[in-house]
Amino acid sequence: MFRVAKSKIERARELTSEIDALINTTPPYTYCLETDTNSGQRATFAKKNINALDKVVIRCGDVFHNLRSALDQAYFESVSAHVPEKSHGALQFPFSKSKEKLESTIKSRLAHKVNSDFAEVIESVKPFSGKEGNLLLNLIHEVNIIDKHKLPIPTGEFTRISSHQLCSQIPDFPKGINNCGFGQNGRDVVWKGKFFDVKTLGEIVPPTNHLYHKALDVPVGLNFSFPNEGYFQPVIETLNLMSDEIERILELMAGVLPRET
Fold first, then answer.
1. Which secondary structure element, helix H or strand E, spans residue 103, and what is its range?
2. From which domain of life does this come (predicted)?
3. In Å, how far are 22, 42, 129, 138 from 135, measured between CA atoms?
């Protein structure tokens, strides 16, 4: 049962593994030290690797598509045998803008034609917007709609960086900076340095012959940010939880289908 839908979830998990590997081998965001040997100015800043980010973004979009498609595929398989072919166009997994409209939305998608238990299962997973709705499920739905026009772009998560970590790698980093936010500005901390060893400054920034960038060994996460939902969580964790949730919903649906299907 749900062979095609399960294959789509499997593909979503494969893509998530690809994304995880990309993040680890070619991070979309790093935290760097900049040194200007002419002026003596040094600064720390967040740096975006746009090519690496593009690869992650495209795969994230594909994960969302596969998970939403798995829902629709399983729903169609569940309901299509119980309605005339002319009604098949209505057979998409129901999503409602509000809790109050959910019952009518489910009915418009003909879930009740299977049996009352099936309709109740769909209602129980809370596919509606708002605080009481199923957040992960609705993000899959909403992002899938957004992705038709604009791919979901993960953001760098720099809150785990501390001045202590930077001091351990940058001997002349200003001491006593405890409340600085990292990764939020073009340049987070700027100071005057002395006695540069060119061998330790990193890579020169073309076309200059005096500006150097060096990636620092500090934790930079990659998070999905959905401000309207108050959501800011790691990309890999989010995608895995979404796949788990779709699998759970398919199991619930399968459990109440009539034996003959």
1. helix 102-108
2. Bacteria
3. 26, 43, 8, 5
Q: Is 110 a member of any domain?
A: yes
**For the chain, how many structural domains are there in total?**
1
Question: Rounded to whole angstroms, how far apart are CA atoms 206 and 46?
Answer: 18
Q: What is the pTM of this model?
A: 0.89
DSSP states along 177-205: --SPPSSSSS-SEEEE--S--GGGS-EE-
Angle (CA) 215 58 4, round 5°: 135
Q: Is position 261 within any domain?
A: no
Which pLDDT tens digit goes with each residue over 27-41? 999 999 999 999 999
Alpha-carbon gap, residue 219 to 207, rounded angstroms: 29
Identify the domain containing residue 18 by its residue range.
Answer: 3-255
Q: pLDDT tens digits, residue range 206-248?
A: 999 999 999 999 989 999 999 888 999 999 999 999 999 999 9
Do residues 222 and 235 lie in contact, with contact meaning Cβ atoms separated by under 8 Å? yes
The verdict on residue 163 lying in a domain is: yes
Instruction: Choose among 218, 208, 115, 85: nearest CA to 158.
Output: 218
What is the edge-to-edge ordering of all strands in the sheet holding 29-36?
A: 189-192, 41-48, 29-36, 211-215, 203-204
